[in-house]
Amino acid sequence: MTVLDQYRAVAAAIAEAESEAGRPAGSVALVAVSKTYDGEAIRPVLDAGQRVFGENRVQEAMGKWPALREAYPGVELHLIGPLQSNKSAEAVATFDVIETVDREKIAAALSAEMMKQGRRLAVYVQVNTGEEPQKAGIPPREAVAFVTRCRSVHGLDVVGLMCIPPADENPGPHFALLAKLAKESGLPKLSMGMSGDYETAIAFGATSVRVGSAIFGARPPQG
Questions:
Q1: How large is the angle between the packed helices 140-152 and 171-185, nearest 10 degrees?
Q2: What's the whole-model pTM score?
């Protein structure tokens, strides 16, 4: 299958999962995860009309997306990888949505940069639902209070929560926990579900799913 075939298959699977969950058609946004893929690999998906993309690394996005944005107006770029505070300026300049706010230092740095650059980006708070020590994200028990601080102390436009469940566990309970925390926080959006579990995520209320390898194929080796 070509990248275009795989993209269409994912779009069809999302539509079917929406229908099975009794949700309106088009209620789940596809974030096409283009990390590690070059512009030529991404163009067929852009040509098909996809405009929302996710990148893990600020530097990679800065090198790849300016030319693509010029050729394809209307792109919305999400940062879905961990953010270091010393990359806040570049992140605010390059991305439209930051999905990985998970600690006070990042919230403060982003707030300062948005003020400086005159850009108000939507952000998600990343929750470490499995409380895995090696993974980014705020612990679930601290999430609601952290969302409140992001809004009241730092003035951030928090629109939703994001999670990456443990790879070796059933993702359903993690998606259910994220949905519960979002409801307690009064947040409308849930970024959850990747190539292996996005249909499950839709059943649990995902408003966006982050799909990369199911569209673009196996990732190129990282040098």
A1: 30
A2: 0.96
Residue in the structure block whose two tokens are 């469940």: 165
pLDDT at 218: 79
**Which residues are 210's β-sheet partners?**
31
How far does Cα 105 stand from its chain's mean position?
A: 20
The three state secondary structure string of the chain is CCHHHHHHHHHHHHHHHHHHCCCCCCCCEEEEECCCCCHHHHHHHHHCCCCEEEECCHHHHHHHHHHHHHHCCCCEEEECCCCCHHHHHHHHHHCCEEEEECCHHHHHHHHHHHHHHCCCCEEEEEECCCCCCCCCCECHHHHHHHHHHHHHCCCCEEEEEEECCCCCCCHHHHHHHHHHHHHHHCCCEEECCCCCCHHHHHHCCCCEEEECHHHHCCCCCCC
Partnered with residue 84 across adjacent β-strands are none
Can you list the residues of the chain whose pLDDT is less than 70? 219-223
Give the pLDDT score at 223: 46
**168 — phi, psi (to 5°)?**
-100, 15
Structure tokens at 197: 């579990």
Q: What are 165-202's pLDDT values in tens digits? A: 999 999 999 999 999 999 999 999 999 999 999 999 99
